[in-house]
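Good morning N.,

You mentioned wanting to compare the apo and holo forms, so I went ahead and generated the holo version with adenosine-5'-diphosphate. This is what I fed in:
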Amino acid sequence: MAGGDLIFMGPPGSGKGTQVRLLKDAHGWEHLSTGDLFRGHLRLGTPLGRLAEEHMSQGHYVPDEVTVGMVNERLGRIPRSRRIVFDGFPRTVAQATALDKLLGDHGRSLGCVIVLEVPSKDLLSRLSARGRSSERSDDSPEVIGKRLAVYEQQTRPVVEHYQKAGLLKRIDGVGDVDQIRQRVEQAIA
Ligand code: ADP
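and this is what came out, ligand included:
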């Protein structure tokens, strides 16, 4: 990958969060996670945080215009020279289309899109294990099933979108953290 920003995709429980953190620590990239931004708003008790929580706690996505508006605002504060790793965005085809425009508006471009592939039976067991120790309202067993279904319905088409654009790299997300980290590094080298 010569340059440009990176999108990191993967279903809930795929280990996306862990790999994105390793990547940003190793390369000093800017981490833009819409889930973290929503949770930040929630902690501060902003109207955006309250609105997001209504959707998040049900396992639903926050409406596209709200999410895109928040990303646009964030992009305005990141220097153009700094590479971004997008985490959890875009999650719908409408968001992907909006991002193309936003990147252009902010003088940026996309280098590649990584998707971590993990079989659904593994996702369920990983998420149930995390749910027992998590304080997130969306890690309960009922909501986990919903989040996986929403990913398949709304986010899988985004993977196809980037496949068609020739930007996609699929990574096997089964293995230990370091093995997967090495696969990611190879994919972006
Ligand atoms: P995970 O990847 O484990 O599902 P995230 O922290 O990325 O967790 O997202 C948690 C929740 O935040 C999602 O289930 C959704 O409700 C909301 N969310 C995050 N990113 C987006 C987005 N791009 N569009 C809509 N909703 C989002």
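Helices lie at 16-27, 34-44, 47-56, 64-75, 93-105, 120-131, 141-164, 177-188.

Happy to go through it together on a call whenever suits you.

Best,
F.
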